Amino acid sequence: MNSEGTPKVEIPDILISAMAQEINNYDTVLHGVSSPLPVLAMSVARRTHAPDMAYVSGAGGVDSEVEQIFPSSFDPRLNRRCVAYFGLYEAFDLAQRGELNLMFLGAAQIDRHGNTNLSVIGDPDHPKVQLPGGAATAFLMPITPKVVIWITRHSGRIFVKEVDFVTGQGYNHRTEEQRENELVVISNLGVMDFKNDARVMQLRSVHPGVSREAIQEKTGFELIIPSRVPETPEPTSEVLEIIRQLDPEGVRRAEFK
Amino acid sequence: MREVLTTLEDAAKMVKDDELVTTGGATFHRAPMEMVREIVRQGRRGLNLVDREPAIDFDLLIGGGCVSKIRAGMLAFEVFGLAPNFRQKAEAREIVVKEGACQPIIAGLRAAAMGLPSLPVKGLIGSDIMGVSEVIGGYKQVEDPFTGEKMVAVRAIEPDVAIVHAQKADKYGNVRIEGPFYEDVIKAKAAKKVIVTVEEIIPNEEFRKMPEATTIPHFLVDAVVEAPKGAYPASCFNYYDADYGHIQEYMKWANEGRFEEYLNQYVYRRGER
Q1: Cis ω before B233 (30° cut-off from 0)
Q2: Assigned CATH topology for domain B8-101+158-268
Q3: Minimal Cα–Cα distance from B193 to chain A, Å?
Q4: According to the model, what pLDDT value does residue A214 have?
Q5: I need a surface site. Which of A8, B21, B113, B254 has the fewest CB within 10 A?
Protein backbone atom coordinates (compact mmCIF):
# COMPACT_ATOMS: atom_id res chain seq x y z
CA MET A 1 0.00 0.00 0.00
CA ASN A 2 1.19 3.54 -0.69
CA SER A 3 0.47 6.52 1.52
CA GLU A 4 -3.04 7.02 0.03
CA GLY A 5 -3.96 3.46 0.99
CA THR A 6 -4.32 2.38 -2.67
CA PRO A 7 -2.66 -0.97 -3.42
CA LYS A 8 0.33 -0.79 -5.76
CA VAL A 9 -0.43 -2.06 -9.28
CA GLU A 10 1.44 -5.25 -10.19
CA ILE A 11 1.73 -7.00 -13.57
CA PRO A 12 -0.78 -9.76 -12.64
CA ASP A 13 -3.33 -7.04 -11.83
CA ILE A 14 -2.98 -5.55 -15.30
CA LEU A 15 -3.50 -8.94 -16.94
CA ILE A 16 -6.50 -9.80 -14.76
CA SER A 17 -8.08 -6.42 -15.40
CA ALA A 18 -7.49 -6.65 -19.18
CA MET A 19 -8.86 -10.21 -19.22
CA ALA A 20 -11.96 -9.07 -17.31
CA GLN A 21 -12.52 -6.33 -19.91
CA GLU A 22 -12.90 -9.01 -22.62
CA ILE A 23 -16.09 -10.25 -20.89
CA ASN A 24 -19.37 -8.61 -21.82
CA ASN A 25 -22.44 -8.56 -19.63
CA TYR A 26 -24.77 -11.53 -20.45
CA ASP A 27 -21.83 -13.58 -21.81
CA THR A 28 -21.58 -17.24 -20.86
CA VAL A 29 -17.96 -17.70 -19.79
CA LEU A 30 -16.00 -20.81 -18.80
CA HIS A 31 -12.66 -21.28 -17.09
CA GLY A 32 -10.69 -24.51 -16.96
CA VAL A 33 -7.88 -26.07 -14.98
CA SER A 34 -4.70 -24.28 -13.78
CA SER A 35 -6.49 -20.96 -14.23
CA PRO A 36 -6.05 -18.58 -11.28
CA LEU A 37 -6.00 -15.51 -13.57
CA PRO A 38 -9.22 -16.46 -15.42
CA VAL A 39 -10.98 -17.21 -12.11
CA LEU A 40 -9.99 -13.76 -10.85
CA ALA A 41 -10.86 -12.04 -14.16
CA MET A 42 -14.32 -13.66 -14.23
CA SER A 43 -14.93 -12.72 -10.60
CA VAL A 44 -13.82 -9.14 -11.26
CA ALA A 45 -16.08 -8.86 -14.32
CA ARG A 46 -19.06 -10.21 -12.41
CA ARG A 47 -18.55 -7.80 -9.55
CA THR A 48 -18.07 -4.79 -11.84
CA HIS A 49 -19.26 -4.37 -15.44
CA ALA A 50 -20.78 -7.82 -16.15
CA PRO A 51 -23.08 -8.69 -13.23
CA ASP A 52 -25.42 -10.72 -15.47
CA MET A 53 -22.80 -12.94 -17.08
CA ALA A 54 -23.22 -16.70 -16.68
CA TYR A 55 -20.18 -17.75 -14.70
CA VAL A 56 -19.44 -21.41 -15.49
CA SER A 57 -16.56 -22.90 -13.54
CA GLY A 58 -14.42 -25.88 -14.45
CA ALA A 59 -14.80 -26.68 -10.75
CA GLY A 60 -18.43 -27.47 -11.60
CA GLY A 61 -20.38 -24.56 -10.11
CA VAL A 62 -22.53 -21.96 -11.88
CA ASP A 63 -22.53 -18.34 -10.66
CA SER A 64 -20.47 -19.22 -7.60
CA GLU A 65 -19.68 -16.44 -5.17
CA VAL A 66 -15.94 -16.93 -5.07
CA GLU A 67 -14.56 -15.81 -1.74
CA GLN A 68 -10.98 -16.94 -2.16
CA ILE A 69 -8.94 -18.68 -4.87
CA PHE A 70 -6.72 -21.73 -4.30
CA PRO A 71 -3.73 -23.41 -6.01
CA SER A 72 -6.25 -25.62 -7.84
CA SER A 73 -8.85 -24.00 -10.10
CA PHE A 74 -11.06 -27.06 -9.55
CA ASP A 75 -11.11 -26.67 -5.76
CA PRO A 76 -14.73 -27.32 -4.67
CA ARG A 77 -14.51 -24.30 -2.36
CA LEU A 78 -14.63 -22.19 -5.54
CA ASN A 79 -18.25 -23.36 -5.93
CA ARG A 80 -19.32 -21.46 -2.82
CA ARG A 81 -23.03 -20.51 -2.99
CA CYS A 82 -23.30 -21.67 -6.61
CA VAL A 83 -26.82 -21.88 -8.04
CA ALA A 84 -26.21 -25.19 -9.83
CA TYR A 85 -23.65 -27.76 -10.85
CA PHE A 86 -22.99 -27.95 -14.58
CA GLY A 87 -20.41 -30.52 -15.60
CA LEU A 88 -17.50 -29.62 -17.82
CA TYR A 89 -18.80 -31.97 -20.51
CA GLU A 90 -22.10 -30.11 -20.39
CA ALA A 91 -20.23 -26.84 -20.87
CA PHE A 92 -18.49 -28.47 -23.85
CA ASP A 93 -21.88 -29.48 -25.26
CA LEU A 94 -22.88 -25.84 -24.90
CA ALA A 95 -19.74 -24.87 -26.85
CA GLN A 96 -20.75 -27.25 -29.68
CA ARG A 97 -24.09 -25.42 -29.79
CA GLY A 98 -22.21 -22.13 -30.12
CA GLU A 99 -23.61 -20.91 -26.81
CA LEU A 100 -20.36 -20.64 -24.86
CA ASN A 101 -19.28 -17.09 -25.63
CA LEU A 102 -15.82 -16.94 -24.13
CA MET A 103 -13.10 -19.28 -22.91
CA PHE A 104 -9.70 -18.51 -21.39
CA LEU A 105 -6.81 -20.74 -22.49
CA GLY A 106 -3.06 -20.84 -21.87
CA ALA A 107 -0.11 -21.49 -24.22
CA ALA A 108 3.50 -22.62 -23.91
CA GLN A 109 4.19 -21.46 -27.49
CA ILE A 110 2.19 -19.25 -29.86
CA ASP A 111 2.90 -18.13 -33.43
CA ARG A 112 1.79 -15.20 -35.58
CA HIS A 113 -1.31 -17.05 -36.82
CA GLY A 114 -2.39 -17.79 -33.25
CA ASN A 115 -1.50 -21.48 -33.27
CA THR A 116 -0.74 -22.58 -29.72
CA ASN A 117 1.31 -25.46 -28.35
CA LEU A 118 0.65 -27.02 -24.96
CA SER A 119 1.67 -30.53 -25.89
CA VAL A 120 5.34 -31.08 -26.49
CA ILE A 121 8.63 -29.30 -27.23
CA GLY A 122 10.62 -31.15 -29.89
CA ASP A 123 9.45 -34.24 -31.74
CA PRO A 124 6.12 -35.53 -30.29
CA ASP A 125 7.36 -39.13 -30.38
CA HIS A 126 10.71 -38.19 -28.81
CA PRO A 127 9.85 -35.25 -26.57
CA LYS A 128 12.53 -32.86 -25.44
CA VAL A 129 10.01 -31.45 -22.97
CA GLN A 130 6.78 -33.26 -22.23
CA LEU A 131 4.24 -30.52 -21.62
CA PRO A 132 0.99 -31.17 -19.69
CA GLY A 133 -1.30 -31.23 -22.73
CA GLY A 134 -3.83 -28.80 -24.11
CA ALA A 135 -6.87 -29.95 -22.12
CA ALA A 136 -9.87 -28.54 -24.04
CA THR A 137 -7.76 -26.35 -26.35
CA ALA A 138 -7.97 -28.35 -29.62
CA PHE A 139 -11.70 -28.71 -29.15
CA LEU A 140 -12.66 -25.20 -28.04
CA MET A 141 -10.18 -23.00 -29.86
CA PRO A 142 -11.68 -23.09 -33.38
CA ILE A 143 -15.36 -23.27 -32.40
CA THR A 144 -15.68 -20.72 -29.60
CA PRO A 145 -16.74 -17.20 -30.66
CA LYS A 146 -14.05 -15.64 -28.46
CA VAL A 147 -10.93 -17.18 -26.97
CA VAL A 148 -8.58 -15.21 -24.74
CA ILE A 149 -5.04 -16.59 -24.38
CA TRP A 150 -3.09 -15.45 -21.35
CA ILE A 151 0.72 -15.59 -21.31
CA THR A 152 2.68 -14.57 -18.24
CA ARG A 153 6.24 -14.63 -19.63
CA HIS A 154 6.35 -12.84 -22.98
CA SER A 155 9.59 -13.84 -24.75
CA GLY A 156 10.95 -15.17 -28.03
CA ARG A 157 10.82 -18.68 -26.58
CA ILE A 158 7.05 -18.46 -26.26
CA PHE A 159 6.17 -16.13 -29.16
CA VAL A 160 7.82 -18.30 -31.83
CA LYS A 161 7.98 -18.32 -35.65
CA GLU A 162 6.46 -21.75 -35.76
CA VAL A 163 5.06 -23.84 -32.93
CA ASP A 164 6.59 -27.33 -32.51
CA PHE A 165 3.11 -28.86 -32.34
CA VAL A 166 -0.27 -27.31 -33.18
CA THR A 167 -2.41 -28.02 -30.12
CA GLY A 168 -4.77 -25.07 -30.63
CA GLN A 169 -5.76 -24.00 -34.16
CA GLY A 170 -4.60 -20.58 -35.30
CA TYR A 171 -6.31 -18.81 -38.20
CA ASN A 172 -4.33 -20.73 -40.87
CA HIS A 173 -5.70 -24.00 -39.51
CA ARG A 174 -9.36 -23.03 -39.51
CA THR A 175 -12.36 -23.14 -41.81
CA GLU A 176 -13.68 -19.88 -43.31
CA GLU A 177 -16.45 -19.81 -40.73
CA GLN A 178 -14.05 -20.40 -37.85
CA ARG A 179 -11.87 -17.53 -39.06
CA GLU A 180 -14.65 -15.20 -37.89
CA ASN A 181 -14.12 -16.24 -34.28
CA GLU A 182 -12.13 -13.81 -32.19
CA LEU A 183 -8.75 -14.51 -30.63
CA VAL A 184 -7.12 -12.16 -28.13
CA VAL A 185 -3.68 -12.62 -26.55
CA ILE A 186 -2.97 -10.91 -23.24
CA SER A 187 0.64 -11.11 -22.05
CA ASN A 188 2.66 -9.50 -19.29
CA LEU A 189 3.73 -6.86 -21.83
CA GLY A 190 0.65 -6.04 -23.87
CA VAL A 191 -2.58 -7.04 -25.60
CA MET A 192 -2.57 -8.52 -29.10
CA ASP A 193 -5.35 -9.43 -31.51
CA PHE A 194 -5.79 -10.60 -35.11
CA LYS A 195 -8.21 -7.98 -36.44
CA ASN A 196 -6.77 -7.66 -39.95
CA ASP A 197 -7.49 -9.34 -43.30
CA ALA A 198 -4.50 -11.68 -43.02
CA ARG A 199 -5.55 -12.72 -39.51
CA VAL A 200 -2.02 -12.37 -38.10
CA MET A 201 -1.00 -11.08 -34.68
CA GLN A 202 -1.04 -7.34 -34.20
CA LEU A 203 -0.40 -5.17 -31.21
CA ARG A 204 -3.53 -3.65 -29.72
CA SER A 205 -2.14 -2.01 -26.58
CA VAL A 206 1.01 -1.92 -24.49
CA HIS A 207 0.97 -2.17 -20.72
CA PRO A 208 2.06 0.94 -18.79
CA GLY A 209 5.83 1.45 -19.04
CA VAL A 210 6.31 -1.00 -21.95
CA SER A 211 7.43 0.29 -25.34
CA ARG A 212 6.36 -1.07 -28.73
CA GLU A 213 10.01 -1.76 -29.51
CA ALA A 214 10.45 -3.79 -26.31
CA ILE A 215 7.49 -6.02 -27.21
CA GLN A 216 8.75 -6.55 -30.75
CA GLU A 217 12.18 -7.43 -29.39
CA LYS A 218 10.70 -10.11 -27.15
CA THR A 219 8.58 -11.58 -29.95
CA GLY A 220 10.09 -14.22 -32.25
CA PHE A 221 8.25 -12.97 -35.37
CA GLU A 222 7.22 -9.64 -36.83
CA LEU A 223 4.21 -8.18 -35.06
CA ILE A 224 1.92 -5.85 -36.95
CA ILE A 225 2.28 -2.57 -35.08
CA PRO A 226 -0.25 0.12 -35.98
CA SER A 227 0.97 3.72 -36.02
CA ARG A 228 -0.96 4.48 -32.84
CA VAL A 229 -0.85 1.96 -30.03
CA PRO A 230 -2.63 3.01 -26.83
CA GLU A 231 -1.68 2.00 -23.33
CA THR A 232 -3.62 -0.81 -21.65
CA PRO A 233 -5.86 0.88 -19.08
CA GLU A 234 -4.63 0.55 -15.50
CA PRO A 235 -6.91 -1.41 -13.19
CA THR A 236 -9.18 0.74 -11.05
CA SER A 237 -8.79 0.74 -7.28
CA GLU A 238 -12.06 -1.21 -7.08
CA VAL A 239 -10.58 -3.95 -9.26
CA LEU A 240 -7.35 -4.01 -7.27
CA GLU A 241 -9.30 -4.41 -4.07
CA ILE A 242 -11.33 -7.31 -5.44
CA ILE A 243 -8.14 -9.07 -6.55
CA ARG A 244 -6.50 -8.66 -3.15
CA GLN A 245 -9.61 -9.74 -1.32
CA LEU A 246 -9.97 -12.93 -3.38
CA ASP A 247 -6.30 -13.81 -3.44
CA PRO A 248 -4.72 -12.81 -0.14
CA GLU A 249 -2.04 -15.49 -0.50
CA GLY A 250 -0.87 -14.38 -3.95
CA VAL A 251 -1.69 -17.54 -5.96
CA ARG A 252 -1.95 -15.26 -9.02
CA ARG A 253 1.80 -14.59 -8.92
CA ALA A 254 2.84 -18.26 -9.24
CA GLU A 255 2.71 -18.27 -13.04
CA PHE A 256 5.00 -15.24 -13.32
CA LYS A 257 7.95 -16.83 -11.53
CA MET B 1 -29.44 -56.58 -5.05
CA ARG B 2 -26.29 -58.45 -4.19
CA GLU B 3 -23.82 -57.31 -1.57
CA VAL B 4 -20.60 -56.01 -3.11
CA LEU B 5 -18.93 -54.62 0.01
CA THR B 6 -15.35 -55.85 0.13
CA THR B 7 -11.85 -54.97 1.32
CA LEU B 8 -9.38 -52.58 -0.28
CA GLU B 9 -7.02 -55.50 -0.97
CA ASP B 10 -9.63 -57.66 -2.68
CA ALA B 11 -11.07 -54.79 -4.71
CA ALA B 12 -7.58 -53.83 -5.95
CA LYS B 13 -7.07 -57.42 -7.12
CA MET B 14 -9.89 -56.84 -9.63
CA VAL B 15 -7.46 -54.55 -11.49
CA LYS B 16 -5.22 -56.78 -13.62
CA ASP B 17 -1.87 -56.08 -15.26
CA ASP B 18 -2.11 -54.34 -18.68
CA GLU B 19 -5.74 -53.31 -18.23
CA LEU B 20 -7.28 -50.03 -19.39
CA VAL B 21 -8.11 -48.02 -16.26
CA THR B 22 -9.85 -44.70 -15.66
CA THR B 23 -10.20 -42.90 -12.34
CA GLY B 24 -12.88 -40.56 -11.01
CA GLY B 25 -12.60 -36.97 -9.85
CA ALA B 26 -10.54 -34.22 -11.46
CA THR B 27 -6.99 -33.05 -10.64
CA PHE B 28 -6.79 -32.82 -6.81
CA HIS B 29 -10.44 -33.53 -6.09
CA ARG B 30 -12.09 -36.85 -5.26
CA ALA B 31 -9.19 -38.79 -6.80
CA PRO B 32 -9.32 -42.43 -5.58
CA MET B 33 -5.94 -42.21 -3.83
CA GLU B 34 -6.34 -45.00 -1.27
CA MET B 35 -7.11 -47.48 -4.06
CA VAL B 36 -4.22 -46.08 -6.10
CA ARG B 37 -1.87 -46.65 -3.15
CA GLU B 38 -3.13 -50.24 -2.81
CA ILE B 39 -2.56 -50.88 -6.53
CA VAL B 40 1.01 -49.60 -6.15
CA ARG B 41 1.50 -51.83 -3.08
CA GLN B 42 0.25 -54.84 -5.03
CA GLY B 43 2.79 -54.13 -7.75
CA ARG B 44 0.45 -53.95 -10.72
CA ARG B 45 2.30 -53.46 -14.05
CA GLY B 46 1.59 -52.28 -17.59
CA LEU B 47 -1.59 -50.32 -16.88
CA ASN B 48 -3.02 -48.23 -19.66
CA LEU B 49 -4.55 -45.08 -18.17
CA VAL B 50 -7.15 -42.76 -19.65
CA ASP B 51 -8.84 -39.66 -18.23
CA ARG B 52 -9.71 -36.05 -19.01
CA GLU B 53 -7.69 -34.14 -16.41
CA PRO B 54 -6.02 -36.42 -13.87
CA ALA B 55 -3.16 -35.32 -11.60
CA ILE B 56 -1.67 -36.97 -8.54
CA ASP B 57 -3.57 -40.27 -8.95
CA PHE B 58 -2.04 -40.95 -12.38
CA ASP B 59 1.32 -39.52 -11.34
CA LEU B 60 1.54 -41.82 -8.30
CA LEU B 61 0.67 -44.87 -10.42
CA ILE B 62 3.41 -43.80 -12.86
CA GLY B 63 5.91 -43.22 -10.03
CA GLY B 64 4.97 -46.58 -8.54
CA GLY B 65 5.94 -48.31 -11.79
CA CYS B 66 2.42 -49.49 -12.62
CA VAL B 67 1.91 -47.73 -15.96
CA SER B 68 2.96 -48.26 -19.57
CA LYS B 69 0.61 -45.90 -21.47
CA ILE B 70 -1.30 -42.70 -20.81
CA ARG B 71 -4.02 -40.92 -22.72
CA ALA B 72 -5.19 -37.66 -21.15
CA GLY B 73 -6.38 -34.20 -22.06
CA MET B 74 -3.95 -32.69 -19.60
CA LEU B 75 -1.81 -34.06 -16.79
CA ALA B 76 -0.37 -31.34 -14.57
CA PHE B 77 -0.22 -30.24 -10.96
CA GLU B 78 -2.25 -27.03 -11.48
CA VAL B 79 -0.23 -23.91 -10.51
CA PHE B 80 2.48 -26.04 -8.93
CA GLY B 81 3.68 -27.06 -12.39
CA LEU B 82 4.40 -30.20 -14.35
CA ALA B 83 3.48 -33.64 -12.99
CA PRO B 84 6.91 -34.87 -11.84
CA ASN B 85 6.84 -38.63 -12.49
CA PHE B 86 4.80 -38.20 -15.67
CA ARG B 87 7.32 -35.76 -17.08
CA GLN B 88 10.40 -37.77 -16.08
CA LYS B 89 9.13 -41.08 -17.42
CA ALA B 90 7.68 -39.56 -20.60
CA GLU B 91 10.95 -37.82 -21.44
CA ALA B 92 12.91 -41.01 -20.59
CA ARG B 93 10.43 -42.84 -22.88
CA GLU B 94 9.55 -45.30 -20.14
CA ILE B 95 5.87 -44.59 -20.73
CA VAL B 96 4.00 -43.90 -23.94
CA VAL B 97 2.03 -40.66 -23.90
CA LYS B 98 -0.74 -40.03 -26.39
CA GLU B 99 -2.47 -36.76 -25.82
CA GLY B 100 -6.20 -36.59 -26.31
CA ALA B 101 -8.34 -33.55 -25.67
CA CYS B 102 -10.93 -33.24 -22.95
CA GLN B 103 -14.15 -33.34 -24.92
CA PRO B 104 -13.07 -36.20 -27.23
CA ILE B 105 -11.93 -38.32 -24.28
CA ILE B 106 -15.25 -37.71 -22.58
CA ALA B 107 -17.00 -38.43 -25.90
CA GLY B 108 -15.19 -41.77 -26.13
CA LEU B 109 -16.39 -42.63 -22.63
CA ARG B 110 -19.90 -41.40 -23.43
CA ALA B 111 -19.96 -43.58 -26.54
CA ALA B 112 -19.08 -46.62 -24.43
CA ALA B 113 -21.69 -45.61 -21.85
CA MET B 114 -24.30 -45.46 -24.63
CA GLY B 115 -23.19 -48.73 -26.20
CA LEU B 116 -22.08 -46.97 -29.40
CA PRO B 117 -18.86 -47.68 -31.34
CA SER B 118 -18.10 -43.96 -31.71
CA LEU B 119 -19.46 -40.49 -31.12
CA PRO B 120 -18.85 -37.37 -33.24
CA VAL B 121 -17.53 -34.11 -31.79
CA LYS B 122 -16.87 -30.66 -33.19
CA GLY B 123 -13.53 -28.86 -33.11
CA LEU B 124 -10.23 -30.78 -33.28
CA ILE B 125 -9.77 -30.54 -37.06
CA GLY B 126 -6.62 -28.55 -37.80
CA SER B 127 -4.91 -29.58 -34.56
CA ASP B 128 -1.89 -31.90 -34.67
CA ILE B 129 -3.69 -33.94 -32.01
CA MET B 130 -5.66 -35.41 -34.94
CA GLY B 131 -2.44 -37.07 -36.07
CA VAL B 132 -1.58 -38.61 -32.72
CA SER B 133 -1.82 -42.29 -33.48
CA GLU B 134 -3.47 -44.49 -30.91
CA VAL B 135 -6.37 -46.88 -31.02
CA ILE B 136 -7.87 -45.95 -27.67
CA GLY B 137 -10.29 -43.15 -28.34
CA GLY B 138 -8.85 -42.80 -31.85
CA TYR B 139 -10.14 -40.10 -34.19
CA LYS B 140 -11.40 -40.06 -37.73
CA GLN B 141 -12.80 -37.18 -39.72
CA VAL B 142 -16.35 -37.93 -40.86
CA GLU B 143 -19.23 -36.17 -42.56
CA ASP B 144 -22.65 -35.96 -41.00
CA PRO B 145 -24.93 -38.03 -43.29
CA PHE B 146 -27.71 -35.42 -43.14
CA THR B 147 -25.98 -32.04 -43.32
CA GLY B 148 -22.54 -32.95 -44.67
CA GLU B 149 -20.92 -31.14 -41.75
CA LYS B 150 -17.34 -32.24 -41.14
CA MET B 151 -16.84 -33.64 -37.68
CA VAL B 152 -14.52 -35.97 -35.83
CA ALA B 153 -15.75 -39.41 -34.80
CA VAL B 154 -14.16 -40.53 -31.56
CA ARG B 155 -13.86 -44.26 -31.05
CA ALA B 156 -15.56 -45.58 -27.91
CA ILE B 157 -13.37 -45.83 -24.81
CA GLU B 158 -14.50 -48.80 -22.74
CA PRO B 159 -12.20 -49.04 -19.70
CA ASP B 160 -11.66 -52.45 -18.16
CA VAL B 161 -11.96 -50.74 -14.79
CA ALA B 162 -13.28 -47.44 -13.49
CA ILE B 163 -12.17 -46.51 -9.97
CA VAL B 164 -14.25 -43.82 -8.26
CA HIS B 165 -14.02 -42.32 -4.80
CA ALA B 166 -17.34 -40.98 -3.50
CA GLN B 167 -18.81 -39.75 -0.26
CA LYS B 168 -21.39 -42.45 0.48
CA ALA B 169 -22.57 -45.89 -0.60
CA ASP B 170 -24.54 -48.79 0.80
CA LYS B 171 -23.28 -52.36 0.87
CA TYR B 172 -25.06 -53.09 -2.43
CA GLY B 173 -23.19 -50.44 -4.36
CA ASN B 174 -25.72 -47.64 -4.53
CA VAL B 175 -23.53 -44.54 -4.60
CA ARG B 176 -24.12 -40.95 -3.59
CA ILE B 177 -21.70 -38.33 -4.89
CA GLU B 178 -21.92 -34.93 -3.21
CA GLY B 179 -20.84 -31.77 -5.00
CA PRO B 180 -19.63 -31.91 -8.61
CA PHE B 181 -19.87 -35.35 -10.33
CA TYR B 182 -17.20 -34.70 -12.98
CA GLU B 183 -17.50 -37.64 -15.46
CA ASP B 184 -17.82 -40.25 -12.74
CA VAL B 185 -21.31 -41.40 -13.66
CA ILE B 186 -20.36 -41.69 -17.34
CA LYS B 187 -17.27 -43.69 -16.35
CA ALA B 188 -19.35 -46.04 -14.20
CA LYS B 189 -21.60 -46.70 -17.19
CA ALA B 190 -18.71 -47.04 -19.64
CA ALA B 191 -16.40 -49.42 -17.76
CA LYS B 192 -16.59 -53.21 -17.63
CA LYS B 193 -15.75 -53.27 -13.91
CA VAL B 194 -16.54 -50.50 -11.44
CA ILE B 195 -14.83 -50.13 -8.07
CA VAL B 196 -16.10 -47.47 -5.68
CA THR B 197 -14.36 -46.42 -2.47
CA VAL B 198 -16.34 -44.21 -0.09
CA GLU B 199 -15.90 -42.11 2.99
CA GLU B 200 -18.73 -43.99 4.68
CA ILE B 201 -21.12 -46.86 4.20
CA ILE B 202 -24.69 -45.86 4.98
CA PRO B 203 -27.86 -47.99 5.30
CA ASN B 204 -29.81 -48.85 2.16
CA GLU B 205 -32.81 -47.16 3.78
CA GLU B 206 -31.08 -43.78 3.38
CA PHE B 207 -31.05 -44.25 -0.41
CA ARG B 208 -34.72 -45.21 -0.43
CA LYS B 209 -35.60 -42.04 1.47
CA MET B 210 -33.89 -39.80 -1.08
CA PRO B 211 -33.43 -41.66 -4.39
CA GLU B 212 -32.87 -38.43 -6.33
CA ALA B 213 -29.51 -38.13 -4.52
CA THR B 214 -28.30 -41.48 -5.85
CA THR B 215 -25.75 -40.84 -8.58
CA ILE B 216 -24.78 -44.44 -9.44
CA PRO B 217 -27.29 -47.29 -8.91
CA HIS B 218 -26.06 -50.63 -7.56
CA PHE B 219 -26.21 -52.71 -10.75
CA LEU B 220 -23.39 -50.66 -12.29
CA VAL B 221 -21.05 -51.30 -9.37
CA ASP B 222 -18.90 -54.41 -8.81
CA ALA B 223 -17.15 -53.55 -5.55
CA VAL B 224 -17.61 -51.07 -2.71
CA VAL B 225 -14.92 -50.37 -0.13
CA GLU B 226 -15.15 -48.21 2.96
CA ALA B 227 -12.06 -46.00 2.81
CA PRO B 228 -12.26 -42.92 5.05
CA LYS B 229 -9.89 -40.19 3.80
CA GLY B 230 -9.70 -42.30 0.66
CA ALA B 231 -9.04 -39.30 -1.58
CA TYR B 232 -6.22 -37.85 0.54
CA PRO B 233 -4.22 -35.72 -0.29
CA ALA B 234 -6.92 -34.81 -2.83
CA SER B 235 -10.10 -33.23 -1.48
CA CYS B 236 -13.42 -34.89 -0.81
CA PHE B 237 -16.23 -32.34 -0.84
CA ASN B 238 -18.14 -32.10 2.47
CA TYR B 239 -15.39 -34.15 4.21
CA TYR B 240 -11.96 -32.51 3.76
CA ASP B 241 -9.99 -30.09 1.59
CA ALA B 242 -6.99 -30.89 -0.60
CA ASP B 243 -3.70 -30.92 1.33
CA TYR B 244 -1.68 -28.63 -0.93
CA GLY B 245 1.27 -28.77 1.46
CA HIS B 246 1.50 -32.54 1.06
CA ILE B 247 1.14 -32.26 -2.71
CA GLN B 248 4.09 -29.85 -2.85
CA GLU B 249 6.13 -32.19 -0.66
CA TYR B 250 5.31 -35.05 -3.05
CA MET B 251 6.56 -32.96 -5.97
CA LYS B 252 9.71 -31.98 -4.15
CA TRP B 253 10.65 -35.59 -3.41
CA ALA B 254 9.86 -36.70 -6.95
CA ASN B 255 11.79 -33.82 -8.51
CA GLU B 256 14.79 -34.45 -6.27
CA GLY B 257 14.99 -38.12 -7.26
CA ARG B 258 13.82 -39.26 -3.83
CA PHE B 259 10.46 -40.68 -4.84
CA GLU B 260 11.29 -44.11 -3.40
CA GLU B 261 11.40 -42.45 0.01
CA TYR B 262 7.95 -40.98 -0.59
CA LEU B 263 6.65 -44.40 -1.57
CA ASN B 264 8.18 -45.97 1.53
CA GLN B 265 6.75 -43.38 3.82
CA TYR B 266 3.26 -42.83 2.40
CA VAL B 267 2.44 -45.92 0.36
CA TYR B 268 4.28 -49.03 1.48
CA ARG B 269 4.01 -48.23 5.17
CA ARG B 270 0.27 -48.48 5.12
CA GLY B 271 -1.95 -46.33 7.24
CA GLU B 272 0.58 -43.62 7.93
CA ARG B 273 -0.02 -40.21 6.47
Answers
A1: yes
A2: Glutaconate Coenzyme A-transferase (3.40.1080)
A3: 23
A4: 97
A5: A8
